[in-house]
Specification:
This is GntR family transcriptional regulator. With 250 residues, the protein is an alpha+beta fold. Helices cover 24% and strands 32% of the residues.
Length: 250
């Protein structure tokens, strides 16, 4: 077993050994990244990051090294670039509990409708909703907002027979469960990371190269029959997910 290596610049609250190879030699860009985390903590949310030139002089490294370190922090959502303005310290990520829509208190959401249409289910959707492939469904697409900030894109599919009046009662801002008068009795949800398509990136207002969090959810009612399939795409630089397993002791 190799001898323990001391890393005096890293703490238990920071990245600790993340990114450090077994031989213990820290890549130069990563050392700059760790130093930048201290700069971010010192400057605080909304402050402008020093220029590339200033950072190169401060850390005595090349522009390529600074750009790699800053680029990773942008991808992680710790920094944000504004065209023609500079690079800023980003605010903390919004925390989104993994739960059915009506029980998600993490974000006070806003929603903007993009698509509301009738269509035929098709084979894959029909299997998920336990209907025939020629069953008529509603497809509802909404941009998800946190205040005025676009943070995601949600596509919902529902059998038209279970909510025939949806077009008459639908309002973009209100949770669907309230509009349908139907609380989910349970749901199955899967989370993965993806890159947004050009259209999705345009609607969300993000860079197509930034990683996104994608959730697939199928919800069922008290009768045990699925009544919706939801595909939600979230900005990975602005959202994180949380869930609780069991109850705290005491």
């Amino acid at each position: 077993m190799p001898a323990p290596t001391r890393h005096s610049r890293l703490s238990a609250d920071g990245p600790v050994l993340d990114g450090i190879p077994e031989h213990g030699r820290v890549p130069r860009y990563y050392a700059v990244k760790v130093e930048l985390l201290a700069v971010i903590a010192e400057l605080g949310e909304g402050a402008v990051l020093p220029t590339e030139r200033e950072l190169c002089e401060r850390f005595e490294v090349s522009r390529a090294t600074v750009r790699q370190a800053v680029g990773e922090l942008v991808l992680e959502g710790r920094l944000s670039r504004r065209q023609g303005s500079g690079t800023y310290i980003a605010g903390p990520k919004l925390v989104q509990p993994l739960a059915t829509e009506s029980r998600r208190p993490g974000i006070r959401p806003g929603r903007r409708a993009i698509t509301l249409e009738r269509r035929v289910a098709g084979r894959a959707l029909a299997a998920d909703l336990q209907v025939t492939s020629d069953t008529e469904v509603f497809h509802l697409e909404r941009v998800l907002l946190a205040g005025d900030e676009r943070v995601g894109l949600e596509s919902t599919y529902l059998p038209a027979a279970r909510c025939p009046d949806l077009l008459d009662v639908f309002t973009p801002e209100q949770p669907l469960s309230e509009q349908l008068g139907m609380e989910p009795a349970g749901a199955e949800e899967r989370v993965e990371t993806v890159l947004a398509t050009p259209r999705e990136a345009m609607l969300i207002g993000t860079n197509p190269a930034l990683p996104m969090l994608l959730t697939h959810r199928i919800s069922w009612g008290p009768d045990g029959v699925p009544f919706e399939r939801v595909r939600s795409l979230y900005r990975g630089d602005r959202l994180s997910f949380t869930t609780r397993l069991g109850r705290p002791a005491g």
